[in-house]
Write a structure and sequence with these properties.
Elements: E1 5-6, H1 11-14, E2 22-23, E3 28-29, H2 37-41, E4 51-52, H3 55-66, H4 79-85, E5 102-103, E6 114-117, E7 123-127, E8 132-136, H5 148-162
Antiparallel strand pairs: 1-4, 2-3, 5-6, 6-7, 7-8
Protein name: Beta-lactamase-related domain-containing protein
InterPro entries: Beta-lactam-related, Beta-lactam/transpept-like
Organism: Streptomyces thioluteus
């Protein structure tokens, strides 16, 4: 995963990024800068925003989650972390969540399909029981923050990719 990093990104890398939302202060779309106001206040990264990556790195990450021997080099996590991250950790709080993933909306609870959504539109699904993963790279913030159109697309994609 040599292209995954925290932002803000240097200009030579930021030029490869898709623009996200319109910054009202500069009247330009952000590129290589976290859209999240808290992250920007903290220098570009916080616990909920500021990570930038590419599809190849997401593929490596998800393959390693399903099979830790698939990593080309020693990963920073293993089967125990993967197993723990794909369990509900929120007790009776709603919505139920793990530390990184949560059960995929619209999927049967017994299906073991977990999802991680990025605020800007990315969705990653993983199902160890099916030995399957899927990634949907989208950009919901370019035009609007309205969640429903993208939620419909994400749910349809998950249904096709994972059941």
């Amino acid at each position: 995963m040599d292209s995954t990093r925290f932002g803000p990104l240097p200009n030579e890398i930021a030029t490869r990024c898709a623009p996200t939302e319109l910054d009202q202060d500069t009247d330009t779309h952000l590129k290589g800068v976290a859209h999240d106001f808290s992250a920007r206040l903290l220098g570009g990264v916080c616990g909920i925003a500021g990570t930038f990556t590419v599809l190849d790195d997401l593929v490596a990450f998800l393959r390693c989650m399903l099979d830790s021997t698939a990593a080309p080099a020693r990963a920073g996590f293993g089967p125990a972390w993967t197993s723990e991250s794909l369990t509900v950790q929120s007790g009776s709080l709603e919505p139920v969540r793990g530390p990184f993933w949560h059960p995929a909306p619209g999927a049967a609870p017994s299906g073991g399909i977990w999802v991680h959504y990025g605020f800007t539109g990315t969705g990653m699904w993983i199902s160890p029981s099916q030995q399957r993963w899927a990634v949907l790279l989208t950009n919901k913030l370019y035009y609007t923050r309205d969640r429903q159109p993208l939620a419909d697309i994400r749910n349809a994609f998950r249904g096709l990719a994972c059941g």
